[in-house]
User: Fold these one by one.
Assistant:
Number 1:
Amino acid sequence: MNAQSDTVSLIKGNEAIAKGALAAGCQCYFAYPITPQSDIPEYLSGELPRQGGEFIQAESEIGAINMLLGVAACGKRAMTSSSSPGISLKQEGISYLAGSELPGVIVNITRGSPGLGSIDPSQGDYYQATRGGGHGDYRMLVLAPSTCQEAYDLTIRAFDLAFAYRNPVMILGDAILGQMKEPVLERRETVDTSQEASEWALSGAKDRPRRLIKSLYLADGALAEHNERLQAKYQEMHKEQDWEEFATQDSQVLVVAFGSVGRIAKSAIRMLRGQGYRIGLFRPVTLYPFPSERLRELAKNNSLITIENNAGQMVDDVRLAVRNVSDSAFHGVMPGKLPSAEDFLTPILHVWEQNSQIAQAAER
Amino acid sequence: MSSQPQAEERVAFALPLTMSGASTHFCPGCHHGIIHRLMGECLEQNGLGESAICVGSVGCSVFIYNYIDVDAVEAPHGRAPAVATGVKRALPDRFVFGYQGDGDLAAIGFSEIMHCANRGEDVTIIFVNNTVFGMTGGQMAPTTLLGQNTTTSPKGRDMDKDGAPLNMSELIASLDGTAYSSRVAVNTIKNIKQAKKALKKAYRAQNQKQGFSFIEFLSACPTNWKMTPLQANEHVGTTLMQRFPLGVFRDTVE
Ligand SMILES: Cc1ncc(C[n+]2csc(CCOP(=O)(O)OP(=O)(O)O)c2C)c(N)n1
Ligand code: SF4
């Protein structure tokens, strides 16, 4: 890697993702417009061709994900982005990517749902992202940035992970992240990715046996064997677990929140710490694989509350992580309502009080 | 593999190097096998075996990669033109072709084919029109003839309820991104020769980056037509061609 001049610019989360993709060596990008992520195709429609890449405004999200599949089969770096309804349309293609073991980056800047919903923030697509979304027993790596800088950095990491595991990787953000502006440090490194897929990618069968990329396994036992191999790969992905901890050194109550809500929760925790409450934050950065081990450890000394901008999805993973050790309270802000730090204070303090009562009872 | 010819012998019929030689899984009298063979021959004769990338589809031809021995990727049902677009944009100097049935291309994949053609992608799509969904048991396709009985049009296709058959070659020919669009058949020697010419033309359009090329093959499905192979072969000429005339509908290839 050659480090070139680094620059700082004040940009939206959407643009940070687009720039991250360019920095990662993304060669092709396909998308269909939808709020609140249209800044990504708008930016890349000019910038990607300028850098020698290919941009297509696809006829639909289905078209876009399948164009990505074609590029991925040739071992090149490609990305597509959309928002909730469009991501629903991509699910069949994502399942084929997973089944064919093809790398690609899919960005979901979520919006209010179900249906056409609204263009407000929402974390309602957590299940869809972390459970596979499309048909079949597959998994995607899911990365959830909470700042514009992280959006930039994680986009670069998403490409590296996609090729390391030959698997689709999702960036899960929301309307808050996509639309807010923050300074972003662009690390302009040129990465040589020309050989990263030379062992398996299609290029024409010249001086080698032909290659085949498929997800159909009809022979007796072949699909089961394929699925076993995929599951082993998903197990291996667990070493990619990543999270942020804030003020956990002496905390007694731990807030678990991801993405934008994680960041808003941090503000709430700062306010409460100012009043002497020992509250900490655990923010999963990888939603799949979920950072269970560390959370389980923290749960030994903390009461938990999970806060989400949905009716309670990640809280299932939190409870699974701490089962037999602890449990988690839940506070949900319905998609369509902007979460605020003030709204989090009462639910967090409620858990704090319960925690203190339990502690007192134990002392008596 | 065939044995070496003796001194005075001349090879009249050899397996193209672009084909694996595996015997096909198609029903007796199915035209898919003939079309595969023609494609393999033309790939070899145009020296495209080492640069070709095949985009397969979902239908009776799903195993095309078992017979045509070139690099291949499997597309979801109907999406081959979008996958081919991605392949071609990633590797603009390779020869990229897709192979789709009429359910795949004209029903679920209608949007992808129209936009791929309209963008003028330098890819070649082979469209096999047998007027039914072969693989799933002979249901009605967008190309099913008026009055034709299928497993989902038991009283025959009804203009009022089901609409009229889609003439894809004519539709594709109306798009400015299309360099070549023609309809051919493989029911007679004469038509097979004509089909080979069409394939070569389409390959030329792509290799010279002149735009999208499309060839529709009228194809027999004796199984779902409930005919003998011979009857089905005849039916292509006597009945299918009335609705789907053979011909070149657009040709801007220099
Ligand atoms: C999303 C999706 N819907 C439906 C199917 C089931 N399916 C498989 S092949 C096919 C139709 C094939 O017909 P056609 O394209 O005409 O090809 P043929 O078998 O006649 O060659 C259908 C509906 C599928 N595989 N995927
Ligand atoms: S069902 Fe029809 S299209 Fe399919 S293999 Fe048999 S004859 Fe061919």
Note: Residues 189-207 of chain B form the longest helix (19 residues).
Number 2:
Amino acid sequence: MILKDPAKDSIKDPFVPLTIPGALEKNRNGDQKSLLGNQKNLLKGEKASLKNQENSLRMEVKNLDAWYSSGQVLERINLPIFENEILALIGPSGCGKSTFLRCLNRLNDLIKSFRLQGQIKLDDFDIYDPGIDLAILRRKVGMVFQHPNPFPMSIFDNVAFGVREINRRIKRTELAEIVEESLRQASLWDEVKDKLNVSGLSLSGGQQQRLCIARALAVRPEIIMLDEPCSSLDPVSTAHIEELLLMLRADYTIIIVTHNLAQARRISHRMAFFLSGRLIEHGNTAEMSIRPQCEETENYLCGRFG
Amino acid sequence: MNVTEEVRSVEFELPAAKVRMRKIKERLIYSALLGCVLISVLTTVGIILSLITETFSFFQEVPLGQFLTDTRWTPLFADKHFGIMPLVAGTLIILVGASLVALPIGLASALYLSTYAKPGVRKVVKPLLEVLAGIPTVVYGYFALTFVTPLLRTFIPDMSIFNALSASIVVGIMIIPMVSSLSEDALVAVPHSLREAGFALGATKFEVATKIVLPAGLSGVIASFILAISRAIGETMIVTLAAGSTPKLTLNPLESIQTMTAYIVQVSMGDTPHGTIVYKTIFAVGMLLFLITLAMNIIGQMVTRRYREVYE
Ligand SMILES: Nc1ncnc2c1ncn2[C@@H]1O[C@H](COP(=O)(O)OP(=O)(O)O)[C@@H](O)[C@H]1O
Ligand SMILES: [Mg+2]
């Protein structure tokens, strides 16, 4: 866990677990043959196991306030994020979900007028500590955006992009291995293995989004954030990605913003409900769906607004 | 009939005379606009036709083979030779020199403005660069002759006063704004989410600028290059003033040369009688210039289409 050391460790670190045990094995053993079929079983299994294991804290957000030039957009947010969970952020649009997400990998640093107060910890590091290496932080906390945004380059180069940034002189064979593995994890390999040199932009929307997921996975992140990743996709592609997230959950911590409550219920272990910049409630997905603690949450979950 | 209906009928049922007036007005506007279009189309056609006829009659006196292979261009001397190569070589030196100056500097400015510069800096620098484009070329020509050449001669003393190097550097400076401004437009148009995706993977500003933004805006950047190069080929005033008037088959930028455009100026300025072979040379040279520029435009469009990336 070396966040602050920019040099050697950072270069080698992401490549140590070259073969990721969970997701890939499952896929190869054929447990996941029917992509749409096993979802429910899988979820039940996951949930059962979730109860058994005591999950450790990965990130912790404490008293987070955030401002744009337009005014305050996040107020007193306190939220823990646990290892190997899928955390769904829900709430009406404009309530600050994307802003919250972009605080976690400091992407908001790019916005001049943005200001933030409070603390966000990744393991034992305060990620807003001046000594933090942004490149390493962003590799540990990967991000997938609302609209598929592949780079204007080949499928292979899209996935290899981040890896090359880490190690410029990586061997071609080693790189190819990482690319293949990442594409397999994103369950895109079979569709693109014969056209890795074709532009990423030539793929369909759903494939592009899975390419973006593969691109994020290639640098071996520990936490993956997805900002409404299915909002521009058709139902089949959406199901595909949900399936994928459930698989990835074994090895990663996943934070997903979604407008789709059914989706949040299907795939998440915990939900966090945002409303006009405040975190109203968070907790176990099943419990929160059945017995929300706050009236606002209940109204939102029942579709009375948003 | 109530009040509102009355109002309606007043609005919609115009008297016949008014309707006729309106129709005539429409027709007049239509004809005026069409006239304007026709003027520009006919002018273009006229120019091309006169180019073609004069060029045709030039080649009845000078065989195409000689035009293309002879190594001397001396229509103004007693011993006349009509080899276009020296003029092409002169143009080529200017073109290459200007590109070496303008393309890297213009592209670097575009990358800086589109990725690094704070909005305030960009707001000041961009218009400033565009002012460079508004300076009359004769001023650039004098700048080359009275400032750049003496400066260069302090380093290279045996360089001639009129030389291709000085002219090409200044032509390069003149086309920098074209490259930087058009390239910057292309780079700024690259979707913001692509940059964010790059940063989210831990890339630095430089990597995002060169590996993501530049490839994504490549079609526009190449288009700006080609436009700027066409402009350098067609540039007349700077080369007339600073590059000399010695058609010479050389690629040495330290010598005095003559470009195609400068030759046309030289002949047009003199009192060359209509219909003579010297008079016709300027049309042949002009025709070649026209074809080169046309080819550049076509190549530009092909390349642009080839590299255009489609984003939603
Ligand atoms: N770059 C920005 N500059 C100024 N205000 C912004 C910016 N991005 C978002 N906002 C504002 O912050 C609020 C929260 O936005 P956002 O986090 O995108 O909400 P959500 O993702 O939940 O829809 C909104 O009111 C939005 O208008
Ligand atoms: Mg959002």
Note: The radius of gyration of chain B is 27 Å.
